[in-house]
Each structure stands twice: as C-alpha cells, then as structure tokens.
Amino acid sequence: MAYELYNYNPSTSAAVAFAVMFALSTVGHLWQTGRNKSWFFTPFVIGGCFELVGYIARYISAKQSPNWTTMPYVIQELLLLVAPSLFAASIYMILGRIIRLLNGDSNSPIRPSWLTKIFVTGDVISFFMQSGGGGILATAKSDSSMNMGNNVIIGGLIVQVISFSVFIVVSVIFHRRMLNSPMHMMVKTQIPWSRYMMILYTGSALILVRSAYRVAEYVQGSTGYLQSKEAFVYIFDATLMLLCCILFNIFHPSKLLAKRPQNYEEDLEMMNESGYRNI
Q1: What is the sign, positive or negative, of the torsion defined by CA atoms of 141, 78, 75, 209?
Q2: What is the pTM of this model?
C-alpha cells in the first residue's frame, strides 16, 4: 500500500504565515546571539532555521496539491520533527549557566558539569531517533517499513518527553533550594535569575506539550484523527514552537548573563567565607 503524504490539501497561506514569523524570530535570535556572543545558544538559532525551511518546504508541498512530490514533504517532515530537539538543547544549557552564575552547585541535584552533558546526550539520542524514523517513514515502500519508521519516531519522542520531565523536576528542586538559601537574599536584587527560571519552565512546557501531541499523533498513525486535520499541526506544533521562539526573543539569556555586577564574585566569596554557602 502506498504511503499517502497528506490526508488533506495543505494550506499555502498558513505555511507562508508561519515561515515569515519564524524568519523574523530567527533573524532576531541570530542578531541577539551574535551581538552578545552567547554562542551556547546557537542550537536554538539552528532550530529556528529548521522551522523556517520546514514551512517553506510545506508551502511548496501545498502548491503541488494533490500531486505531491516526495522531496518537499521529506524536508518539512524531518525539519519540523527535529527542530524542537535543538530548542531543548539550548534550554538545558541555560539552566547550567544559571547554576554557575549563582555559584549554586550545591543546590543542584546534578552537578552543572554533568547536567548539560546528561540532558543534551538524551536530546541527541532523541534527535537521531526522530531523524532516522522520519527518514524511514518518508521513503517507506511497505507497511512494515512504515510501522518501523513510526515506532522509531515514537521512541525518540518518548525519550524527549522523559528527558524534559526529569529536567523540569531537577529545575524545580534547584529553584526551591535556592529560594530557601540565605544566598538568595543577596542575589535576588542583582540578578533576575528566578524570573529566568520561570521562563525556562514556560519554554519547557511548550516543548513538552508539543512532544506529547507528536507522540499521540504517531501512535494513532497515518490514518488517525490527529493526522487527518491540518489544524492540529498548527495549533500543537507550529504555534507552540513559535511562542517558544518569541519567548526567548523577549527574554534572551544573554540579558541574564549581562546582569552580573562587577563586584558579584567578591560578594559571593564574602558570603561563602561567612558560612552562608549553601545547605
């Protein structure tokens, strides 16, 4: 049985609208990252580029309806599937930098040097599983190949959901410990770290909801309800990922790093010598 690329005629106007919005957001991220030399945020910029190219490819597919060719479909399917993994990698790195910025190693359930490695490794695994599964599915010639690609994608998405869930738990534990620490009274007026923790939670929740939607979509399969309506793609994927991009345009992590005052290290050293290094 041939694999049906779409169960509907994709909208050209929706694809163009999201391509334009992702383009604007990504150009903003590129400028913000370069201007502030916050190179650790590069994966996020690449993820934005993936979203942009993905919706351009989706527009090309929409223009071809109903005689779709494989290449635009494969490009949009793969890039839109894996882009959130790159957003996630940057979010993991932001938490590590917040912990180091606050000298809060003892408040983190996982050492900052290991925190980024652990979660980014999980993200890389998820990325390659989704990419591999998407490649298998896009070139599938039989039901068994379609099922294999579908299952690999589901596995990659589940890895992402689990990784993000654990990350949120680690973030909440660190946040609560810092709020209960005497050090918090000093840093809260100098560095808006707690606000950025809330931003991390928001960005993480957006990606988590999107990944949960994708899991449900692929579990149902190509004949399922979620893949039969284009609106779901734009509500639970495109819109959520665009909000994530805009969120970090407004609250770019370089702003957090720039808030460190010149005498901050001296203040921390005095706190530590006075016996207030954390519990």
Answers
A1: positive
A2: 0.87
